[in-house]
Design a protein that fits this description.
heterodimer; A: mainly alpha; B: 9 helices; about 70% helix
Chain lengths: ~200, ~250
């Protein structure tokens, strides 16, 4: 698939340089494409894991959460710009609705979780600090699940006990997300070792 | 000259839903999502369920619809079974009134119909046209398009990585993940991540060459225009939702 010389592929630096110019935009093309690519990667990898892992069971749910959280951490470390997480979530939600038939209620929920997590990352020193990124992603994963459960609770408010099974699934997937943070760090180390991530 | 990526094959379905603009279907889904949160009456929700089922059936994908309903039913039975088990151990958490279980089921089923109608009658190109017609900002439109365009390249990468794993003497599949988790990371996930990063660079080059990000408006091959049919569906949806709200909040149906 790839036909570009390795030496010519560090577009991030080139377009970022242009974006930071007088008439440039905050977001460079390569950063935005990277966000879209990782959003697709997280979604398709999650779907493939559930598909090949024998459907929705605790193991595949956890594995899917591990991979998607790890990829999110790698993305945030690679595109170190405030707003990356929010765009990632918005794009995922929009494409979910258009292509996969996702619930439109997810958009405000995603936006809220993303903005709050971005706030946490900013308070902890910004995107350049790994500690802040890890805590920010952990907070986001928690908030996203809490908001989804809240929306679910609204839908089943007559019989809240129906949420018990969903809550159990959510806890399992959150444990997976926490493990995904460790895996994400490993991925980043590998990418740095390979010279793909320079910071 | 038509853009080569836009194709219309003989096998393309042309149902009433396929002729609707993506924006109409999205709007109907959003209105349905908000309405079901407000509505509480089983009778009113049942009426909406019948209407939404008819709406989803317009996609004429009866097999897929049936499969989705069966899966949905199985998940609900699973939830009820879970409640039953909880009730055995903790009687306080057992079943309540039947209506209390039926109402959440009806809400979810209406939502399912609204999103199935949209998902089963939309093509990728339609989604891209819809993204354009929604006048999303540049920073949202570009990643969304990259996301849609990345999937075929990624599936090709998965195939290639699978072949390389086979060459190394492993059998790719769920058992490899469980039996050799560290090797799976090295042999499957890292190569996929590397290739994804390269693909992202390729897509960036393509986007730059097409002039995206150069502060110039993009021309459109196909507009996602509102037609007469869209207005008819919008009015019907408004009548159905407005009527349901009136029956519950105005007349007091329960």
């Amino acid at each position: 698939m790839s036909t570009i010389e390795p030496s010519a592929t560090d577009l991030g630096a080139a377009t970022r340089e242009r974006a930071s110019g007088r008439h440039g935009r905050y977001w460079s093309v390569s950063d935005l494409v990277m966000v879209g690519t990782f959003a697709a990667l997280a979604k398709v990898a999650g779907l493939l894991i559930v598909l090949f892992g024998g459907g929705m069971n605790p193991v595949t749910l956890m594995a899917s959460s591990i991979v998607s959280t790890a990829l999110l951490l790698v993305l945030l470390h690679k595109v170190q710009r405030l707003g990356t997480l929010t765009i990632f979530l918005l794009v995922s939600a929009v494409v979910d609705i258009l292509v996969l038939g996702g619930n439109p209620v997810r958009i405000p929920a995603s936006l809220l979780a993303g903005v709050l997590a971005e706030g946490v990352i900013w308070l902890l020193g910004g995107y350049r600090r790994m500690f802040g990124l890890i805590i920010g992603v952990a907070v986001h994963e928690l908030l996203a699940r809490a908001i989804s459960l809240g929306v679910g609770a609204l839908l089943v408010r007559e019989e809240p006990r129906l949420l018990l099974m969903v809550a159990a699934v959510v806890v399992v997937s959150y444990i997976g997300s926490l493990l995904g943070l460790w895996l994400g760090r490993r991925f980043i180390e590998e990418l740095r070792h390979a010279g793909i991530i320079h910071h | 000259m038509p853009v080569s990526s836009i194709t219309r094959t003989a096998g393309d379905r042309q149902t009433p839903l396929h002729g609707l603009a993506m924006r109409t279907k999205m709007l109907i889904s959003v209105i349905a999502a908000v309405a079901v949160v407000v509505l509480e009456s089983p009778a009113v929700l049942l009426g909406l369920l019948v209407i939404s089922t008819a709406y989803a059936a317009l996609s004429r994908r009866y097999g897929v619809l049936l499969g989705a309903y069966l899966l949905f039913g199985a998940l609900w039975l699973l939830a009820l079974g879970f409640m039953h088990v909880m009730g055995v151990f903790l009687p306080r958490l057992g079943y309540g009134e039947l209506a209390d279980v039926v109402v959440p089921f009806l809400r979810s089923a209406i939502l399912l119909n609204a999103v199935l109608a949209m998902a089963l009658s939309s093509r990728i190109q339609g989604a891209l046209s819809a993204l354009k017609s929604l006048y999303l900002p540049y920073w949202l439109y570009l990643p969304a398009v990259a996301m849609v365009r990345f999937v075929p390249a990624f599936l090709f990468d998965v195939q290639q990585v699978g072949e390389s794993v086979r060459l190394k003497g492993y059998r790719p599949g769920p058992f490899l993940l469980v039996r050799h988790p560290v090797a799976s990371l090295r042999l499957i996930f890292m190569p996929l991540l590397f290739r994804a990063l390269r693909t992202a660079d390729d897509l960036s080059v393509a986007a730059e060459l097409k002039g995206l990000g150069a502060n110039t408006p993009a021309s459109r091959y196909r507009e996602d225009r509102f037609g007469e049919r869209d207005w008819v569906f919008m009015v019907l949806a408004a009548v159905a939702i407005g009527g349901s709200l009136w029956l519950e909040l105005g007349v007091g149906w329960s």
